[in-house]
Design goal:
With 162 residues, the chain is an alpha+beta fold. The protein has an 8-stranded mixed β-sheet with strand order 1-2-3-4-5-6-8-7, sandwiched between helices. The model has no long low-confidence stretch (mean pLDDT 95).
Length: 162
């Protein structure tokens, strides 16, 4: 996967991205007063191969001027029918408000649909106000059954033609 949005490069995660991707996630979490949990909710960003690549998911990074400024990923889950969960969708504050988040979400949805999945689930925290607004304005419906301790909201979207 290699895609551009303005002068941002969205590409597949590589081994050399592990530390930088973790830094983006931990920084954004701290910005919103949420804790970095390397042995819990965030171990997937440190073990991308196990959680994403080996399960049929994808993990993308966003670069701008050779700096990692965001992440976005998904993997198949057992909840629902032919379902995936979008995870680790984080952008540094310096690149928010440019439409990049909406574009990233649309690209993730397209990749997910192309692989034949029918449902997308997202868990998030109430503190992530911009993320919640993005999900709700793009057709995600509130659901129940939060599974990640630091999250207090869960959303689900049925993909078209399903």
């Amino acid at each position: 996967m290699k895609n551009y949005y303005q002068d941002f490069l969205i590409r597949n995660w590589e081994i050399g991205d592990r530390t930088r991707a973790a830094s983006v996630v931990s920084y954004v979490l701290s910005e919103y007063g949420l804790g970095w949990e390397p042995k819990g909710a965030d171990k997937d960003v440190l073990q991308v191969e196990e959680f994403y690549l080996e399960t049929g998911g994808e993990f993308w990074v966003i670069e701008h001027q050779n700096q990692l400024v965001g992440t976005g990923a998904y993997y198949p889950i057992k909840r629902g029918h032919k379902a995936v969960e979008i995870r680790k969708m984080y952008l540094l504050s310096s690149v928010r408000g440019l439409g990049l988040g909406k574009y990233l979400l649309q690209q993730l949805e397209a990749a997910i649909a192309n692989r034949g999945f029918e449902q997308i689930w997202i868990e998030t925290a109430g503190a992530l106000v911009e993320a919640i607004k993005l999900y709700e304005s793009n057709g995600y419906q509130p659901a129940t059954g939060v599974e990640t301790p630091r999250c207090d909201r869960v959303y689900m979207k049925l993909l078209p033609n399903n």
